[in-house]
Design a protein that fits this description.
The structure holds two protein chains of two kinds.
Chain A: E1 11-20, E2 23-33, E3 38-42, H1 49-56, E4 64-69, E5 72-74, H2 79-84, E6 87-90, H3 102-106, E7 113-114, E8 117-118, H4 120-133, H5 150-163, E9 168-172, H6 180-195, E10 199-203, H7 207-213, E11 216-221, E12 224-231, H8 237-245, E13 265-274, E14 278-286, E15 290-294, H9 301-309, E16 316-321, E17 324-325, H10 331-336, E18 339-342, H11 346-350, H12 357-361, H13 366-369, H14 377-390, H15 407-421, E19 425-429, H16 437-452, E20 456-461, H17 464-470, E21 473-478, E22 481-487, H18 493-505
Parallel strand pairs in A: 3-10, 3-11, 6-9, 9-10, 15-20, 15-21, 18-19, 19-20
Antiparallel strand pairs in A: 1-2, 1-4, 4-5, 7-8, 11-12, 13-14, 13-16, 16-17, 21-22
Helix pairs in contact in A: 14-15
Chain B: H1 10-13, H2 17-25, H3 30-53, H4 60-85, H5 93-104, H6 107-116, H7 119-142, H8 147-166, E1 171-172, H9 176-182, E2 185-186, E3 189-190, H10 191-209, H11 211-221, H12 223-228, H13 233-259, E4 261-262, H14 270-280, H15 292-311, H16 316-342
Antiparallel strand pairs in B: 1-4, 2-3
Classes of the chains: A alpha/beta, B mainly alpha.
Chain lengths: 506, 343
């Protein structure tokens, strides 16, 4: 499947090996990047993508292997060296300084100055040029970056790469923080850059994106290149998934057993409003039912979840569980009533990263397990172990720090938290963000099994196919309003997108 | 479910695993290693003390002097360990201690104590300390004021109130039931050292064995995660600052017993010694990890250091320099350690 291309590669990585004490993160990775192409890097979590881009960015030194730029061997001994060789990296956590202006961020570390004075006017005009080149002339150079959206920050990060005359830009899951309109703009920018000869190394979990903008694909698995320079157009999804996992399915959604009409209503939300964010949202979920909320980032879907949970105080409206009203704005009341939330930002909102797995699992229930204020760690570990085994948490063992687990297993630990606590209603915000393809199906199965056991589930996801595939019923949210409600089978991705667009235009 | 597993090798997922397992093969946790390092530092200091001071250092009498010296700072350091574990700080403990010594030793309080017993003075000190701590807690947790600023304000205000009450005079304690209860020795050990020991043991159980301790660590480790897990973070912070104020009150009683005088200058700059001891002990300033054992050893290190300098008649200014160096060295070591165990 190796395509012989007449163009000489711009960047080549050959036989890159990276050992950490006791573990091989990379064990012979090859990567050829042509000028002006979008080269996609695919692989599950733990396959070595992050380590590879850190080697390329000069953050890690390879144990063995060579890196060539224009056929010349180069050493990337530190991050500045990477920039000097024309390699810029945009990390997932955008590394912009919120308190500085757009222009200051772009020229951070290589300020244009004469005799110690920054040349404000030159910097401003060059910044304007860069922003125009990136299709965002409306972002002024003197705007503080903290005021920009995630998409805006990404543009600033890209402008910084361009200001350094980057020839290769590595983008680590750039679309993860964007909604679909912003993704379109990102792709337009990528097209623009590649037409100017800049090469993009694009990392994403989303295959449909790769299909849209990618030229060639390199697949990593367990620190080894298992697919080299595959042509995006000619390689079927099946084959890519197989290379990554050895499996045939993209997303395998569990069967819907169907919710009986006489199943009791668990969660009833009436005219819930949060001023300025969403208004008059009503929904009800029966025991055993999975309801999905589809909508763009910023449509208010996460806020709806958080308001039901009491993490935000509703302006008006009512949340009832099994017919009983919950106190407004009280997480404690929601948790006591057995409502659980797996938040969007697992690491910053969900987990105590340095604490062992079992303490994360029992974070909501240790006080219940305790006797008269005295912790019962043995019982906690037993409860956590039981759920960890039931959920097939890997690696097994609940004493290790949760930081060392993969995204999918951290998510399972979040679910285990509510299983140990007991939960009537489960609110899932982006349940598969940062979860690799293989572990996704496990999460889906798990959610369905919970529903089958009588839990009412409310799912929010940016990925419309996920909402449609997993949920029994779908609510489409646009601009803080419910614009559609109906069975998931009777609507497709296209229609959902349509409604979402239409709603936001109105 | 098993056929759905991800086939990535666990070793590649997790480069830190090897190191963890090699440490666990020795049967030592990270906390144990850190504490052993502190004990080694303390022993080294004792060796220096013995070599330079001989029998003047290595005597039971001197040991009791060191322990008495450590006790007042130590009790507050226990409370401060909880505050710092939540990721906060309490700068007001020194001046709150001063206020409690003044309030508990006014003529009025002592007169009442003559009538009802020492409990009046002790109750007064504890209540004043607790109240100051709770005010800190309310301002921080419910007023959303940064702990640094809130407790800095309390530092200034409590000192002012103490001056007002004492009229800038030193109030001598001559209440007999208080003196007989808290001064002197019990089983050859000063009573205030016993109080320190009791508070330290209670603090250890509170931090490591109770839901209160678990909440403290959770709030410091990730306040948002704790909140979304259903923990009442604000209320817990209120309790923790209240606890710190209470320990300042206990320390106030101990200082009254040791010096026999209430004064608005009591505890001046004590907060710095306390914070230094807690941080040197291994409690993370960013929160999420706290150690009572480390704090106790940290307090003992500074008390021993002071003692060694006094025995050798070295200028206290030199001692200040040494303290500064020790704090920086301890934090540098901690950071190296933290990097190695998480990289």
């Amino acid at each position: 499947m190796v395509t012989e291309d007449p163009a000489a590669p711009l960047l080549q990585m050959q036989g890159i090996v990276k050992h950490f004490p006791g573990a091989k993160a990379l064990d012979g990775v090859d990567l050829d990047v042509l000028p002006g192409e979008v080269h996609c890097l695919l692989g599950q979590n733990g396959a070595g993508k992050s380590t590879l881009i850190k080697v390329l960015a000069g953050a890690h030194q390879p144990t063995a292997g060579t890196i060539l730029m224009d056929g010349q061997e180069i050493q990337i001994s530190h991050p500045v060296a990477a920039l000097e060789h024309g390699v810029a990296t945009m990390y997932q956590e955008l590394d912009v300084v919120d308190g500085l202006t757009v222009a200051e961020n772009i020229y951070l570390g290589h300020e244009l100055a004469s005799a110690g004075f920054t040349q404000r006017r030159t910097v401003a005009s060059r910044t304007r040029e860069l922003m125009a080149r990136l299709g965002h002339p409306e972002i002024p150079p003197h705007r503080e970056v903290g005021e920009l959206s995630a998409a805006g920050k990404q543009i600033v990060s890209m402008a910084r790469a361009l200001s350094r005359d980057a020839r290769v830009i590595v983008m680590d899951e750039p679309s993860a923080v964007l909604d679909s309109g912003e993704v379109d703009n990102l792709f337009r920018v990528v097209d623009e850059l590649t037409s100017q000869g800049v090469a993009i190394v694009y990392i994403s979990h989303r295959l449909e994106e790769i299909r849209r903008i990618g030229d060639r694909i390199t697949v990593l698995k367990d620190g080894v290149t298992v697919g080299r320079n595959l042509d995006v157009a000619d390689t079927p999804t099946d084959e890519l998934i197989k290379l990554m996992t050895g499996k045939n399915v993209e997303y395998a959604f569990p069967e819907r057993p169907g919710v009986p009409q006489d199943a009791p209503v668990r969660l009833e939300v009436t005219d819930l409003s949060l001023s300025g964010v969403f208004s008059d949202v009503s929904l009800s979920i029966r025991a055993g039912e999975i309801v999905g909320l589809a909508g763009l980032v910023g449509s208010g879907r996460s806020e709806i979840l958080e308001t039901i949970y009491g993490a935000r105080r509703a302006t008006h409206g009512r949340v009832q569980l099994d017919g009983k009203s919950l106190r407004r704005g009280s997480v404690g009341a929601a948790v006591a009533a057995d409502i659980g939330l797996a938040p969007e930002e697992r690491k910053s909102q969900g987990l105590l990263l340095d604490e062992p797995v079992y303490r994360n699992v029992t974070l909501s229930s240790f006080a219940r397990i305790a006797r008269g204020g005295w912790l019962d760690e043995r019982a906690e570990k037993a409860a956590a172990t039981e759920q960890a085994e039931a959920l097939d948490l890997r690696p097994a063992g609940v004493d290790r720090a949760i930081r060392t687990l993969s995204g999918g297993n951290q998510q399972k630990a979040m679910l285990a938290r509510w299983l140990v606590h007991g939960c009537e209603v489960l609110l899932l915000d982006e349940p598969t963000r940062g979860v690799d393809v293989g572990a996704r199906s496990e999460i889906y199965d798990l959610v369905r099994r919970l529903a089958d056991a009588g839990t009412a589930v409310l799912v929010v996801s940016s990925e419309i196919p996920e909402v449609l595939g997993l949920a029994d019923r779908v609510l489409v949210i646009s601009d803080g309003q419910v614009v559609h409600s109906g069975p998931a089978e009777s609507i497709d991705e296209h229609q959902v997108l349509d409604m979402v667009m239409e709603g936001s235009a109105a | 479910m098993s056929e759905q597993q991800t086939p990535s090798s666990p070793a590649a997922d997790n480069p830190t695993k090897h190191r963890e397992s090699s440490r666990s093969r020795l049967g030592l946790s990270g906390a144990t290693v850190r504490n052993l390092g502190l004990v080694a530092a303390l022993l080294l200091l004792c060796l220096v003390g013995f070599l330079t001071g001989g029998d003047r250092f290595a005597s039971v009498q001197n040991l009791m002097i060191v322990l008495s010296l450590a006790s007042v700072t130590g009790v507050i350091a226990i409370g401060m360990t909880f505050v710092i574990t939540t990721g906060g700080i309490d700068l007001s403990v020194g001046s709150v201690l001063g206020l409690t010594t003044v309030w508990a030793s006014t003529l009025a309080t002592q007169t009442m104590a003559d009538q009802y017993g020492w409990i009046v003075m002790v109750g007064c000190a504890l209540l004043v300390g607790l109240a100051a701590g709770l005010i800190n807690g309310v301002v921080i947790a419910y007023g959303n004021v940064v702990a640094f600023i809130a407790t800095l304000s309390m530092l200034v205000a409590a000192r002012g109130l103490a001056e007002l009450i004492a009229n800038r005079r030193t109030q001598i304690v001559n209440q007999s039931s208080f003196e007989s209860t808290f001064q002197g020795d019990l089983l050859g050990v000063p009573k205030i050292v016993w109080i320190f020991a009791i508070v330290a043991v209670a603090g250890w159980f509170l931090l490591n064995r109770t839901t209160f301790g678990r909440r403290t660590v959770a709030v410091g480790g990730n306040a948002e995660a704790a909140r979304l897990a259903g923990i009442n973070v604000k209320r817990h912070l209120l309790y923790v600052y209240g606890l710190a104020g209470l320990t300042a009150g206990v320390a106030g009683v101990m200082l009254l017993a040791r010096t026999g005088a209430g004064s608005s200058t009591n505890g001046l700059l004590l907060e710095l010694d306390v914070i230094a001891a807690v941080v040197v002990g291994g409690t993370l300033l960013v929160g999420g990890r706290g150690t009572i054992v480390g704090t106790v050893i940290g307090v003992l290190i500074f008390a021993t250091l002071t003692n060694v300098f006094i025995i050798n008649n070295i200028d206290s200014s030199v001692q200040q320099i040494a303290r500064g160096a020790i704090i920086v060295a301890a934090v540098l070591l901690q950071q190296r350690f933290a990097r190695r165990s998480t990289s």
